[in-house]
Write a sequence for this structure.
């Protein structure tokens, strides 16, 4: 099968998200200039560089109570900071609950019964029991093609790792089984890993 996205795919559901998988989930926590807090998952998320460490996520819908984008983007543009919380299997239900299209007055930390902790390099809350969290300072917002599509780029200024996920100096993902987004309503977890050595590496 071949299709041009501009012409439509003719299938019951859009296959694009099922093709580009698995995708890590950035569980983005933000704080508005008024002190209100927001927590929402984004599956268009990834790391984009080592030195300095940088990440990206994109938001692809808007809300009636925001001038552009979602609450996350609005808060980030107000304050210039956010935190990426990594989602393990134990957090999957809470993560899913925070994905709802709630009004800007809703605090998803409270809604999902999540304990929050203060970040150290930025003024923002993080999910206290997340396996890892990346404190981020905004570098750029890029308006993408299409309605309400925005790419957020940021430098990581602080990194939290849960002590039980560190094994012999290695951050061991099998200790928390990261949750990944697939297509449709599907998710997956990382339970098995294997190693390969690149050409020229020791």
């Amino acid at each position: 099968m071949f299709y041009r996205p501009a012409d439509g795919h003719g299938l019951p559901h859009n296959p694009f998200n099922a093709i580009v998988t698995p995708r890590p989930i950035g569980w983005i926590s933000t704080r508005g200039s008024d002190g209100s807090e927001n927590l929402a998952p984004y599956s268009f998320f990834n790391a984009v560089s080592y030195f300095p460490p940088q990440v990206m996520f994109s938001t692809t819908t808007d809300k009636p109570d925001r001038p552009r984008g979602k609450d996350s983007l609005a808060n980030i543009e107000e304050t210039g900071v956010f935190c990426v919380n990594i989602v393990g299997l134990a957090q999957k239900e809470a993560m899913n609950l925070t994905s709802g299209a709630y009004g800007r007055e809703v605090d998803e930390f409270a809604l999902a019964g999540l304990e929050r902790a203060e970040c150290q390099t930025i003024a923002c809350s993080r999910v206290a029991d997340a396996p890892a969290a990346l404190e981020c300072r905004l570098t750029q917002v890029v308006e993408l093609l299409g309605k309400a599509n925005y790419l957020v780029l940021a430098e990581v200024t602080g990194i939290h790792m849960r002590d039980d996920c560190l094994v012999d100096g290695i951050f061991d993902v099998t200790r928390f089984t990261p949750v990944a987004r697939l297509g449709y309503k599907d998710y997956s977890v990382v339970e098995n890993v294997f190693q390969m050595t690149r050409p020229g590496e020791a």
User: Anything to note?
Assistant: The CA atoms of residues 99 and 195 lie 33 Å apart.
